[in-house]
Amino acid sequence: MVFYRLPESAIFRNLREQVDxxxxxxxxxxxxxxxxxxxxxxxxxxxxxxxxxxxxxxxAPADLDLSLTGDTLTLRGxxxxxxxxVEESWYHRxxxxxxxxxxxxxxxxxxxxxxxxxxxxxxxxxxRMPKAPESRPRQIPVQAS
Amino acid sequence: xxxxxxxxTDLRTAEPRLPVYPMAVDLYETADGLVLMADLPGVRRSDxxxxxxxxxxxxxxxxxxxxxxxGQTPVALEFRDALYRRTxxxxxxxxxxxxxASLQHGVLTLRxxxxxxxxxxxxxxxxxxx
Lengths: 145, 130
What we know:
heterodimer; A: mainly beta; Immunoglobulin-like; four-stranded antiparallel beta sheet; three-stranded antiparallel beta sheet; 8 strands; about 10% helix; about 35% strand; B: mainly beta; four-stranded mixed beta sheet; about 45% strand; disordered N terminus
């Protein structure tokens, strides 16, 4: 059986968005999936490199510790969420995670440990890891017998 | 409510395809005012709106989380680009002219000073002398 998706009219799109929003409102304030641990991480891959992006809002680069053992990437850090001149007991609402954290992930490919670059921007840690030569795609010529 | 919704749609109109999520916040109160910290990973200064209108504070920011590298395909994703939005009712006790906002390492810190009339005042008690 073949299903055709009809173009969605504006009124149904609007209704669908409102229902989606209703369900997201139930989920609470955190939008990233932190069920696997903090910080949430995205892994991307190209023919040349593996890129890991981690959400580390409020963590200064000096408080991050990144290491690679085999194909396991470990990120440790400390997050202090208390602003200057404020006592912890003065809170009305506290939703942001605080304290020490550690997260380990297994990379999808072998990478060249000597050429890893890591930088922070806007509360994201971006780690670029060039793939090891044996992990890069290799073209295999097919010959006629 | 209708008024707030209309005012809060600047970035929504600019980025209609992004899902809208509330961000995690901490809120503290000091003698001088409120301090609000909001996690906004991936939000640049140019993509952030902070507005106080008729006692309603609106925070909005577009999170851009894709790595700026060519030819990438996602392997595992735990977050994605989104429009963060949340509104707070702060009432009339805040002095809107002295709000201080700063964005550092993906965290917005808002200092909202109390209006003079809303500050706690110490009342001196006189004793009658006979």
